[in-house]
Amino acid sequence: MNEGILLGRMGWTPELRFTDGRSPVTNISVGIPTGEANEQGQRKWENFKITVWGTAAESITQHGKKGDMVLVKYNLRSTKKDGSNEPVIELHSNSVRRMQFGENRQPAEAPQD
After folding, report:
1. In this predicted model, what pLDDT tens digit does every residue of 20-48 receive, in sequence order?
2. What's this model's pTM, rounded to 2 decimal places?
3. Number of H helices, E strands in the chain
4. How far apart are CA 69 and CA 107, in angstroms?
């Protein structure tokens, strides 16, 4: 199967929208630090854009915000766009969980888009 798990910080606060068939959907960006720093000493991030569907989309738009730590289970989907013969790999999810550590949860540095 083409499944994976990401643990990282949300790069923006998601907004809920609906397909023509009234299915809830949103996009999130999940940033993972690479372990490297740029010339200014700031962390470098690897960012992944994920399409979230159904109740997971509703929940993360109600409760999630930029900088929150999330655990995302995703599936890979290959599509072709704009008449190109080259496939585009997309990440799709039905499962996003906000992670909280301790009672005084402080948002940490969020990835820059």
Report:
1. 999 999 999 999 988 898 899 888 889 99
2. 0.81
3. 1, 6
4. 8
48 forms beta bridges with 30
Question: By C-alpha distance, which of 7, 26, 2 is closest to 15?
Answer: 26
How many angstroms from the chain centroid is the CA of residue 70?
A: 8
The SS3 of residue 104 is coil
Q: Which tens digits make up the pLDDT trace of 47-95?
A: 999 999 999 999 999 999 999 999 999 999 988 877 788 888 899 999 9
Q: How far apart are CA 9 and CA 68, in angstroms?
A: 5
Judge whether 110 lies within some domain.
Answer: no
CATH number at residue 27: 2.40.50.140
- Residue 18 belongs to what domain range? 3-35+43-99
Element (H, E) at 63: helix 54-63
Q: How many CA atoms lie within 13 A of 27 on its CB side?
A: 7
Specify if 19 maps to a domain: yes
Do the domain assignments include residue 112?
Answer: no
